[in-house]
Amino acid sequence: MKTFIYADKFFLNSDTKAAGYLEITDGVFGDYYAELPEKDAQVIDQTGKWIAPGLVDTHIHGFKNHDVMDNDADGIKKMSEGLLSCGVTSFLPTTLTSSKERLKDVAETIGQVYQEVDGAKIQGIYFEGPFFTEEHKGAQNPSYFGDPDLATFHEWQTASGGLIKKIALAPERKGVAEFVKAVTAEGVVVSLGHSNATLQEAQAAVEAGGSVFVHAYNGMRGLNHREPGMVGALLTLKHTFSELICDGHHVHPQAAEILMDKIGRDRVALITDCMMAGGMPDGNYNLGEFPVVVKDGTARLESGNLAGSILKLKEAIKNVVDWDIATPEEAVMMATYVPAVSCKIDDKCGMIKKGRAADFIVLEPTMELTATYLDGVERYHA
């Protein structure tokens, strides 16, 4: 069945188009037309609204009281369905540092269930750890930290059915260069974070193939004029991407703007790092094995340290526009195309393109989410 979406603006990958019609046939994107190409065609009228690709969250631990580390297939499905209310149509379920056996079980569960989810599509798995160092452990359990081990990674990858798309590590661990070269040759993206690495150590990991920095500024050695550290690395090393949490708590808006201005908005991937309390009321929750208190828009460990976020990706794109550090076009790009490219899943999501699944969102000019469509069907309405 063919329909046309009419709206005031369309965020296409190559350009932003003015009012017109976007063709959708049997759940797949067709062409954009300035004028309706077929008389008496079925039109979905979104006058006054904007159409953008479905958002892509490449770093998210949980939502709606479910955590990836619960190792619960039903929980993964409910998380997928709940994310449609955030404008997210594709995501990477993200693990936490845990035992080798637990991580293998979680990878296997996601690998078995990923094609059964009915909401936001699982485009791979993100292993955040366990090859970190203690100085910037955040909400990761240091008792499971260790040096990268290729045989162990292959056990996890086999258990997942080849679904692990990205793995994070600290550049200063032993054997990083060899590990990074090996897994990147297998098509896996390596991200760098939860690290006290020097600029030189970070640069060596990037030279080996590391290409993403985990939640920029957070969980890493800061910028110092004599030792630029991890923050200096992400600001200066070429051909890398940086994840960024724009909830106003993890990173000051001006620090976010400095990053965007320095490396370019086409290298910044907006993420949430959301934990199970996302979409839930304030109260007591868990992030992996740690108790977390959610209050005043933050999720914190008993120590007071931030423990992931409760940010929705639809809020991140609105925040960066409201903070006047990005245009609507840039905000959408940073939450769709850039995260998809950074994780090498842009062949599946992140853009409105003829022949692709018609996963898109409807926005007000104020950047508030009105609706989420999956395969051309409205699945969420605000």
Distinctive features:
382 residues; alpha/beta; Urease, subunit C, domain 1; TIM Barrel; 2 domains; nine-stranded parallel sheet; globular
Strand content: 25-35%
Largest sheet: 9 strands, parallel
Helix content: 25-40%
What is the CATH class designation of the largest domain?
Alpha Beta
How many E-type strands? 22
- How many structural domains are formed by the residues? 2
The structure class reads: alpha/beta
Low-pLDDT residue intervals, each spanning 5 or more residues: none
Question: How would you name the CATH homologous superfamily of the largest domain?
Answer: Metal-dependent hydrolases
> Overall mean pLDDT score?
96
Taking all Cα atoms into account, the compactness measure Rg is 20 Å
Shape estimate: globular
Distance between the termini: 25 Å
The tally of helices reads 10
CATH architecture of the largest domain: Alpha-Beta Barrel
Secondary structure layout:
Blueprint: E1 2-11, E2 16-17, E3 20-25, E4 28-33, E5 43-53, E6 55-60, E7 62-63, E8 66-67, H1 73-82, E9 88-95, H2 100-113, E10 121-122, E11 125-131, H3 150-160, E12 164-169, H4 176-185, E13 189-192, H5 199-208, E14 212-213, H6 229-236, E15 241-245, H7 253-263, E16 268-271, E17 283-287, E18 290-295, E19 298-301, H8 313-322, H9 328-334, H10 337-342, E20 360-363, E21 369-374, E22 377-381
Helix pairs in contact: 2-3, 4-5, 5-6, 8-9
Q: How would you summarize this macromolecular structure in one to three sentences?
A:
With 382 residues, this protein is of the alpha/beta class.
